[in-house]
Amino acid sequence: MAAIVPAWWRVDLFDAVIWASQSFPVTPPGASPSSQPEASNDLLIAALNHAWAAHEARTNRGLQVANYYLVSTAILATAYVSAITANLNMIAGVLGIYEAITTFLAYRIGRGQAEGAWREGNAVAELRARVADDLRLEKFQVRQNKPRPSWWPSKAAFSAATALAVSAASYAFLR
Q1: pLDDT band at 8; cut points 50, 70, 90
Q2: Most exposed of 1, 32, 109, 134 (fewest Cβ within 10 Å)?
Q3: CB 143, CB 125: distance < 8 Å
Q4: Is the pLDDT of residue 10 over 70?
Q5: How would you write the chain as a 3-class SS string?
Q6: Of 12 and 1, which is predicted with more confidence?
Q7: Beta carbons within 8 Å of 120's beta carbon, 6+ residues apart
Q8: Does position 55 have pLDDT exceeding 90, yes or no?
Q9: Which of 88, 87, 113, 99 is nearest to 158 (CA)?
């Protein structure tokens, strides 16, 4: 059984990098930060590479969920129409319920992946800005933190798709 972790226990990658850079300074005490820029930059670049890999992995998993949902919906819709045409109402009803469950799970999993990609994308932007400041590269700073995406359009679309699947199942069972 999975334990629910309180929000105040969760640590983002960016927070961990900030804490590590403040707790374990790369430059010796009394030395100016510019005297050892490579060690500090190496840490930032390693954190940036890690954050980018995590962001890319989350984005790819979210796209895989979307692709699975589209393919499974097409297959289930075809099977549902075939079952209704052949008067196999119980099978069509079960397919409608399965589609409703698939829609709900695809929304929840996809939203979780998108939220994670959003957090990691902001960490990437912050780390890129810090690396650009340290290396004095103005063109490397692409964007600042993105605002949290609005979920109401996707929630409305997936709610409508779930309602459609439940109504299709009801129609098949009551037919």
Answers
A1: very low
A2: 1
A3: yes
A4: no
A5: CCCCCCHHHCCCHHHHHHHHHHHCCCCCCCCCHHHCHHHHHHHHHHHHHHHHHHHHHHHHHHHHHHHHHHHHHHHHHHHHHHHHHCCCHHHHHHHHHHHHHHHHHHHHHHHHHHHHHHHHHHHHHHHHHHHHHHHCCCCCCCCCCCCCCCCHHHHHHHHHHHHHHHHHHHHHHHC
A6: 12
A7: 13, 51, 54, 55, 58
A8: no
A9: 99
Whole-angstrom Cα distance, residue 37 to residue 20? 16
Pairwise CA distance, residues 24 & 28, whole Å:
10
Q: How far apart, in whole angstroms, are the C-alpha atoms of residue 128 and residue 11?
A: 19
Can you tell me which residue has the tokens 């820029």?
37
